[in-house]
Amino acid sequence: MQRKIQVGILGATGMVGQHFVRFLQNHPWFDLTWLGASDRSAGKKYRDAAQWHLGGETPASVADLVVEECKPGNAPPIVFSATDASVATEIEQAFAKAGHAVVSNSRNHRMDVDVPLLVPEVNADHLRLAPIQRGGRGWKGLIVTNPNCSTVVLTMGLAPLKPFGIRRVVVTTLQAISGAGYPGVASMDIVANVIPYIGGEEEKMQQETQKILGDFEDGRVRNLDARVSAHCNRVPVVDGHTATISVEFSSKPAESDLLEAFRSFAGVPQQRKLPSAPPVPVIYMTQPNRPQPRKDVERERGQAVFAGRLRACPVFDYKFVAMGHNTVRGAAGAAVLNAELLVSEGLV
Amino acid sequence: MQRKIQVGILGATGMVGQHFVRFLQNHPWFDLTWLGASDRSAGKKYRDAAQWHLGGETPASVADLVVEECKPGNAPPIVFSATDASVATEIEQAFAKAGHAVVSNSRNHRMDVDVPLLVPEVNADHLRLAPIQRGGRGWKGLIVTNPNCSTVVLTMGLAPLKPFGIRRVVVTTLQAISGAGYPGVASMDIVANVIPYIGGEEEKMQQETQKILGDFEDGRVRNLDARVSAHCNRVPVVDGHTATISVEFSSKPAESDLLEAFRSFAGVPQQRKLPSAPPVPVIYMTQPNRPQPRKDVERERGQAVFAGRLRACPVFDYKFVAMGHNTVRGAAGAAVLNAELLVSEGLV
Amino acid sequence: MQRKIQVGILGATGMVGQHFVRFLQNHPWFDLTWLGASDRSAGKKYRDAAQWHLGGETPASVADLVVEECKPGNAPPIVFSATDASVATEIEQAFAKAGHAVVSNSRNHRMDVDVPLLVPEVNADHLRLAPIQRGGRGWKGLIVTNPNCSTVVLTMGLAPLKPFGIRRVVVTTLQAISGAGYPGVASMDIVANVIPYIGGEEEKMQQETQKILGDFEDGRVRNLDARVSAHCNRVPVVDGHTATISVEFSSKPAESDLLEAFRSFAGVPQQRKLPSAPPVPVIYMTQPNRPQPRKDVERERGQAVFAGRLRACPVFDYKFVAMGHNTVRGAAGAAVLNAELLVSEGLV
Amino acid sequence: MQRKIQVGILGATGMVGQHFVRFLQNHPWFDLTWLGASDRSAGKKYRDAAQWHLGGETPASVADLVVEECKPGNAPPIVFSATDASVATEIEQAFAKAGHAVVSNSRNHRMDVDVPLLVPEVNADHLRLAPIQRGGRGWKGLIVTNPNCSTVVLTMGLAPLKPFGIRRVVVTTLQAISGAGYPGVASMDIVANVIPYIGGEEEKMQQETQKILGDFEDGRVRNLDARVSAHCNRVPVVDGHTATISVEFSSKPAESDLLEAFRSFAGVPQQRKLPSAPPVPVIYMTQPNRPQPRKDVERERGQAVFAGRLRACPVFDYKFVAMGHNTVRGAAGAAVLNAELLVSEGLV
Question: What is the pTM of this model?
Fold first, then answer.
């Protein structure tokens, strides 16, 4: 095969940055050669700059890389952004202007009208915003984003059902602690407890879902005309966000129609066999008590979303459960899949 | 004061029975003098018949009581039923027929048209079924029931809002492991995990809520004309069921109306100052991340329900969080409050 | 009864300070009227200065107290010190010099030769250091300290056995997360995990134990002539430190001798019926799988230590388990008991 | 390469049996073609006979295998025994007599004088008991065993230090819930709790360690002349037993000697590059707070043991921490490595 594409990470020392480092190990297309972080870390070896919080030890392939400042300069063509929201706007724009493809996990540009908010199985065509973004902003590079971690689970769960006309959605999440970074949630707050609140999360789920499930028409994304209400909770689970979902449809599908829709669902990543695409993006489990985060989250390298318990809802039409890996499919794995989509589209 | 009323427990050795034993310690009206259990336990001292699963050790006041068979015989006038559903129907009816007030936590008779399904703050007037039950069945005693543990949290949370016309409710629960008895949920299934399924629980919540919030009219309880959809989950919390609730009203109340309704809510137990009545039955917490089971569940002896996070719902009118102690307010404490209500009504 | 003694808290807004606030509610001798904290908090009402981390809400009795700076000035005669180690030395000395009895939970002065390191059931006679401290330092007030939380569990467990001649002790702790304050241990580090390290803890246990179990002779405390080795671990338990202990004795006691020693153990707090003294300071449990933190820690208001599983040790003479409440008996409750001892000795 | 060796599992439907099924997936030497279980399961497909408790779903390669009775008949040459102790003696002997190599995880034959209790890195030479066993019992097959899960962690941790003359060992374990099988430990007993007791575990650790670390001399295994004392605790961890270990040596090694011993340790499995042998059997971690079960247990497929925190012990010579995967290196993975050793020795 041809030479690998060099990639870098903005905000490489933080928790999300570490997830990128781990997910990019042995990637068939990408070679992680550049790590950017704050001034405080720049100039240090990665092993010294980053206290490794994930399992095992700092991967040997990056342990001795010297961390750089988050400035375009000699950065590679694709940079994954795991920067903090407080600085992401400026840094990401600087890289895009300098010609880099910025594949961002930060929330800052997600709702910009000219920035694709991608779930490649769901809305790969939103990449048609790319030339509009470049033209409008005068950039050689571009910014694409992936959704908030809980939004990915919801939208992957809903996408197979979109043809039936989604009108109203009530969703409650049971979210893992890894979603809050490090140190994140204090153990005194969550051991044997539930926190019925995650700042800003409900708003993000409600807004992002409408954009992701919207259609690209006339040079812009038209939001899905559906109402979404989210209740977000933190639970003492390490990895994996669970969502209980009630949905009202404009059509009146049979339960078997919906099951068939889950089972036959696939998208561009599957068609093109992108390296980080799960063969089956939404795995419907038939056991009555599944999916479960601790037992299912690591399957398919964390890149699939699991659904189950589809049944009639006394209030709306149907209800079901969805679960996915918040730091993989909901963050680093989502962004890497976005980058693969960009490459397959010839946008890098 | 006058002499205490002697009370007993049917199914005293199981987990719910133990909660009754603990809650009845030092009760100002009731004296626990009789413990019934299966043949296997009958004839043994309680300390030997029951492996004590709650905190501390078997209370000294009952440790040496000899367990009896679950037959009316010399049982006291009030018996609390913690019997297993597989035998509760027959046992409870035998005691009611023999003249005992059976205050049951079992599900068997909850939905019988002539059996009150009581939450004393909410529907004390459903006790008007008592003479109908006695007349119809030819019993000297009677059976009253309390709801399923998760239903109590939901109905206590909804009751203050009933005047605004509840039409549709979508509720998701995050339920504690103590709700499943002993040994109950295997640790391998729930440590750092979520189980998105509790057998039969959703149906119970949906049906019981309509009966509890219904009105007594023309000699019967007319179910509340509202649709309820429940998603029930088990989470690794010891005590305390949390519920996220979205509600549609037939009127269009302001948020301040609902807050005022929570704050001013009280019922018969508060008016009569029943010994196990919480002074404020629904405590509305204003902190954005409360109530939380581990931090709030033991307040008010576990007899209050806590609400919080009232806010507009993009799908329905409002959404909020409720939380209550599943083995106290949702089981033993609920039944003891029912028994106090019976006494205060002169029904014992 | 006579008027209560006014008391204050140094470092009232932190986690340990909050434990003092809670433990002092409704104290029969002491009236909490003064709260000291850092400049940042001074001048604010306590409810605003301290984010309440314990169960329920900020106690009403202190919610509106205005927090003061940690300067003697108008502080009451007894001050409990929950100040951070980085500032405790200076603050505590200033208060002692100004005539206050400083009852400290901080580690700074514990090992000073003229400062009593008290476990009142074990070494109340170490208070004979008080006049020596006052004379030597020229203070009108004084400083007394309580041990590190894990040391309390170990020394209370060993104290009944001291008459048999303790020579060598190997102890492993399984410590609760509440011992690390707030935010303390990150949930990502401890949910479903063990951390086999607590900075400085092993050294503290090893040194403090020798001083506490030492004898006051010739105007000073002679350390116990025993070797102690500690292995300290953090486990996902909320409250309650468990310790497994192997002990070598200079005599060869029978197991029944040791059991009798546990059961008959009592000290000055029990003799004088100090208000915070547990009636039985070391409760020996006979069940094979007890004590357990979640099930036993709240008994006796958290002021007793629990022992169990005494059996022969193939390496040393005997081994057993001890468990106690780290934030009560190991911190706030320990200090309040120390203050009661001071009062009963006429030292305040 | 040559054809794979067919293998089977006795007790295939239980929790340990499922671990064998999982560990044997894609094994380069062994082909799992036979599953034995109780009469109740015999005749059913494995997917129906066994409720799959591990992550994901029943592996496709065995899901449709029909479970057989545990009788030699057509069973393959190697059978892994995961049978319950109540029946293991009879079943295992029947298979050994019929010519099968029985590689057992059950405790029944571990302490038999003619049965090897193997940790291949430590005592591969104990296989010299094989001809003695066959001769003495008149068997064509044989039985070899692996230790109890906690013993594996201890003996792998001690083995590198054996040359320095181990005399006394005090060990405390913090054991994962998966060690208790399914349903195993009730969640009400272990969520946010510690159980300071595991029935029979301490005796097993004490006895088995002496045999494993003993030398084969004069046709038998002479136990290590060392005293071992174990304190066994259950903690809310999913996989991975942690042990804190204090050791007295007959020589006086320097700390650097011990570190070097850990780092250079290897055994027969490494020399022969057996497929399930970890490249480095004991991985010494230098971070002060490692190893940790949740973060390290899955490394090296769960087949390595991790050590750390080596330091002087005030009571004995040194103390340290060891941790290993109880259901892999402590059970299924241990037995598969034993089988590989048998094959490499020509004993199958």
Answer: 0.97
* Helices and strands: H and E segment counts in chain A: 13, 14
Among residues D139, D150, D121, which one has the least CA distance to residue D242?
D150
DSSP letter for each residue of D60-102: HHHHTPBPEES-STT--SEEEE---HHHHHHHHHHHHHTT-EE
Neighbours of D63 (CB within 10 A): 15
Give strand pairing partners of B101.
B78, B142
| Residue in the block written with tokens 């005992």 | B100
**Chain A residue nearest residue B291, CA to CA:** A196
Say whether B55 and C192 touch across the interface (CB within 8 A): no
Q: How far is C185 from chain A (nearest CA, A)?
A: 6
Active site residue C70: no
Q: Nearest-CA residue of chain C relative to A176?
A: C188
pLDDT of residue D156: 98
Q: Tell me the C-alpha distance between D288 and D217, whole Å.
A: 40
Active site residue C149: yes
Above 70 in pLDDT, residue A325? yes
Task: Tell me which residue in C174, C189, C228 faces D233 most closely, judged by beta carbons.
Answer: C174
> What are the structural domains, with CATH classification, of chain D?
5-147+332-344 (3.40.50.720), 149-325 (3.30.360.10)
Tell me the count of C-D CB pairs closer than 8 A: 129
- Neighboring chain B residues of C191 at a CB cutoff of 8 Å: 192
Look at residue B55 in the predicted model and tell me its pLDDT.
87
From C19, C100, C126, C149, the catalytic residue: C149
Which is the catalytic residue, given B19, B100, B241, B325? B241
Instruction: Kindly tell me if the per-residue pLDDT of B152 is higher than 70.
Output: yes
**In which residue ranges of chain D is pLDDT below 50?**
none
Chain B partners within 8 Å of D297 (Cβ): none
Count of residues in chain C: 348
Residues 6+ apart with CB under 8 A from A238: A176, A177, A178, A293, A294, B192, C188, C191, C192, D294
| Most A CBs within 10 Å, among D25, D57, D178, D301, to test the A interface | D57
Distance of alpha carbon D215 from alpha carbon D340, whole angstroms: 22
Long-range own/partner contacts, residues B286-289 (CB < 8 A, 24 or more apart): B288/A197, B288/A199, B289/A195, B289/A196, B289/A197
Task: Please state whether the peptide bond connecting residue B291 to the residue before it is cis, i.e. omega within 30 degrees of 0.
Answer: yes
